[in-house]
Amino acid sequence: MTDVYLLSGFLGSGKTSLLVNLIQHIREQGLKPAVLMNEFGAISIDSDTVGDSKDVPLKELLNGCICCTGSEKTEAQLQGLLEEYEVDVILIETTGAAHPVEALDAVYSPLFADRLDVKGIVTVADAKRWIERHTMSPQIRALFMEQIKHAHLLVLNKTDLLTESQLATVSMELANFNENAPIIQTSNAQVSFAYIEETLQKLQHLPTKPIISGKNLPLSSKLIVLEKPVQKEHFEQWVKALPDTVYRMKGYVPVEGASHPFLFQYAYGMVNWLPEYVKMDPSLVVIGEGIKDLEYVYPSSKQS
Ligand SMILES: Nc1nc2c(ncn2[C@@H]2O[C@H](COP(=O)(O)OP(=O)(O)OP(=O)(O)O)[C@@H](O)[C@H]2O)c(=O)[nH]1
């Protein structure tokens, strides 16, 4: 299993600074890190920046968009990393404009279920921006807050720009806003990988799929196995009736009359079916909050 850490946080909050620190620490532990990033092509991180001799495998996460094409490509990049390199830890730096759920999307692909061990979302929160969040437009502020809300661990960065009393206030407000995430105060995102590893480990309750099962974590994921073909219309009605807290669904759904399961996508209220030419195992990954008991119930069969 390859460990995966998602680095989230608003534009300019200090994600890259954190990434560079973590790469160095991971190497010092004798482990091989790789990076998936939003904004850059498949280039190696400059070894000067990383502070070591060897380059780190780096792939492009083409966009933070939840649309099918984007996440398909993300899956391909992840697969590429796993196949081309020997990797112990993958750090995914999401774009500052991405919702962390979108980034989780590709990682929770059924393709990687037995290969990736998702450790959690580390969000870098810009302390100064938090104080000034009221100056942001409502939409952008909402994104900034979402990134903080969905964190499993909060790195409260740029503390050097705050007075002590401001820092105390911000820490308290963040702790109230995301009650589950431990907070570490940093300057230049100076936090050790060991700290992050241990802290997230403590939040895990089951040996596999920590986010999926961690009862204190805001986001969870669930795998639904569809044992027999569904009626498309009935299935879509079920999808429409789901609570807003189901953010994302994706997987292979067998449909009555079709020879192979369809690739099924659901995001922000929209569904998308794509025919598959290979017979994939019928399973559906659901990401959301409070979805533990979510099940698809087939219509009761009519008596003849
Ligand atoms: N004063 C101060 N500046 C910081 C701190 N951490 C990072 N910076 C600066 O903030 C800027 C953005 O840092 P990055 O690490 O590139 O942030 P990022 O989140 O990766 O930025 P994007 O990729 O644009 O989203 C850089 O100029 C950093 O030097 C900090 O703790 N204090």
Automatic annotation (TrEMBL):
- Residue span(s) of domain CobW/HypB/UreG nucleotide-binding: 4-184
Q: Give one Pfam family, short name only.
A: CobW_C
Catalytic activities? GTP + H2O = GDP + phosphate + H(+)
Q: What keywords would UniProt list here?
A: Chaperone, Hydrolase, Nucleotide-binding
Protein's UniProt keywords contain Chaperone: yes
Family annotation (SUPFAM superfamilies)? Hypothetical protein YjiA, C-terminal domain, P-loop containing nucleoside triphosphate hydrolases
> Where in this chain does the record put each CobW C-terminal domain?
224-292
InterPro entries from the UniProt entry:
CobW-likC_sf, CobW-like_C, CobW/HypB/UreG_nucleotide-bd, P-loop_NTPase, Zinc-reg_GTPase_activator
> What family does the Swiss-Prot or TrEMBL record give for this protein?
Belongs to the SIMIBI class G3E GTPase family. ZNG1 subfamily.
Q: What is the protein name given in its UniProt record?
A: GTP-binding protein
Naturally occurring in which organism (per UniProt): Sporosarcina saromensis
